[in-house]
């Protein structure tokens, strides 16, 4: 069954308690009418400061710092466009229990217009106050970076159905062509809007709790640039089922326009 790479409300509530002695939560089974799934399977720990733009969201998703006040994430992680003060963003740390972590509440959510569960899987969360001292992650505005080898990172499960992670994990995954990916998924891919990455043999992938997090690579100037947003997949790291990501280049102008309307 195709599943989102996100979590249920029950687990998201538990994840908000990041000051607990340990983080060994296990994702509950999905309801029959509630598609869900992305953590980084086959990953290794990221170093403190390695990806300063990474964001953990209290509903059990990931995101990337687009600007000091905006977090880019997946549409399926949020509700409809409008005022929203219920989300807490955790930033500035690889350890969700670190005493130096930064936490900021949301004040508004912008979900991609026309989002209906198929494609258009992007959203912006505006923070109540700007975050200073952390690098943001630029998005690609061209398809030039939509191939090669990508990096993914997140606090999601390290195995399908596993618990969420206290420490940020990272992994690299190769580009998978639209034709191969669409064949693997029986035609469910939206090629213009989605990009796939993973190994035919499986073993490395995003997973439950990684939804909304970035897929990124080095640009021509050697800086990180975002090319994808963790969206969906069949389980986690299964052979011949690569991860499916929102293709940021396709939506770049829409994201930039929305960001401008939210104050940058």
UniProtKB/TrEMBL annotation:
GO terms for molecular function: serine-type endopeptidase activity. Keywords: Disulfide bond, Hydrolase, Protease, Serine protease, Signal. GO terms for biological process: proteolysis. Residues 1-31 form the signal peptide. Residues 40-260 form the Peptidase S1 domain. SUPFAM superfamilies: Trypsin-like serine proteases. Pfam families: Trypsin (PF00089). Coiled coil: none annotated. This is Trypsin. It comes from Micromonospora inaquosa.
């Amino acid at each position: 069954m195709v599943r989102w790479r996100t979590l249920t409300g029950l687990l998201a509530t538990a994840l908000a308690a990041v000051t607990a002695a340990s983080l060994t939560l296990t994702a509950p089974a999905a309801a029959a009418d509630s598609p869900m799934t992305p953590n980084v399977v086959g990953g290794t720990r990221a170093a403190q400061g390695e990806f300063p733009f990474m964001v953990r969201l209290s509903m059990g998703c990931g995101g990337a710092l687009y600007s000091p006040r905006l977090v880019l994430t997946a549409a399926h992680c949020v509700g409809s466009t409008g005022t929203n003060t219920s989300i807490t963003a955790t930033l500035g740390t690889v350890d969700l229990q670190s005493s130096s972590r930064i936490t900021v509440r949301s004040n508004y959510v912008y979900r991609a217009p026309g989002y209906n569960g198929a494609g258009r899987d992007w959203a912006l969360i505006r923070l109540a106050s700007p975050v200073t001292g952390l690098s943001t992650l630029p998005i690609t505005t061209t398809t030039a970076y939509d191939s090669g080898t990508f990096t993914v990172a997140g606090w999601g499960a390290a195995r399908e159905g596993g618990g969420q992670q206290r420490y940020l994990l990272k992994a690299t995954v190769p580009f998978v062509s639209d034709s191969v990916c669409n064949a693997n998924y029986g035609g469910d891919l939206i090629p213009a809007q989605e990009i796939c990455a993973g190994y035919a043999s499986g073993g490395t992938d995003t997973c439950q709790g990684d939804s909304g997090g970035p897929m990124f690579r080095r640009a021509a100037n050697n800086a990180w640039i975002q090319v994808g947003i963790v969206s969906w997949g069949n389980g986690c790291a299964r052979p011949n089922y690569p991860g499916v990501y929102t293709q940021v280049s396709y939506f770049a102008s829409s994201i930039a326009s929305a960001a401008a309307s939210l104050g940058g």
